[in-house]
Amino acid sequence: MDSLKGLLQNKLLIYNIFAGVFYVMGEAGTMTFSMKYMEIQYHTSAAGASMISGSASVFAMIFGFLGSGYFIGRFKPRPRLVLGWNVILGAVHVIGSIIYIYLGCQDKGVYGLDPVTG
After folding, report:
1. Which residue ranges run through the membrane (predicted)?
2. What DSSP element (H or E) covers 48?
3. Averaged pLDDT for residues 33-44
4. Residue 64: φ, ψ to 5°
5. Exposure string (b/e) for 35-64, b if CB count within 10 Å is 16 or more?
6. What local confidence, expressed as pLDDT, does residue 56 receive?
7. pTM for this structure?
8. Does the structure show a pLDDT above 90 at 95?
9. Disulfide-capable partner of 48 in 16, 41, 44, 75 (CB 3.0 to 4.6 Å)?
10. Would you give the end-to-end CA distance of the chain in angstroms?
11. Residue 109 pLDDT
12. 48: Cβ–Cβ under 8 A, 6 or more apart, which residues?
């Protein structure tokens, strides 16, 4: 019970947990519909979109967990440096998400369908 009390009184840990919860809540919609978005935006099949989105997500998570675990274990940075790094990566993520909205393939339409006459 004393160890749980000690963890709950660790402000850095509690703030980090809250930040993770809010990040996941904010990204839940994007994670849920990213495959459907890719399917529509890039004119690909559902299977193709899930293969691209799923494999990229898994490899990014593996690389992130292993890389951050190695870096923190090897260099033992101060909490302020880790916080700054998280803020920088959060800003890069937001900028990347905004850029991702504008990427896409040109719509060639449906062969034989005249949009003017229907």
Report:
1. 12-35, 47-71, 83-103
2. helix 46-75
3. 84
4. -65, -45
5. bebbbeeeebeeeebbeebeeeeeeeeeee
6. 86
7. 0.66
8. yes
9. 44
10. 71
11. 66
12. 39
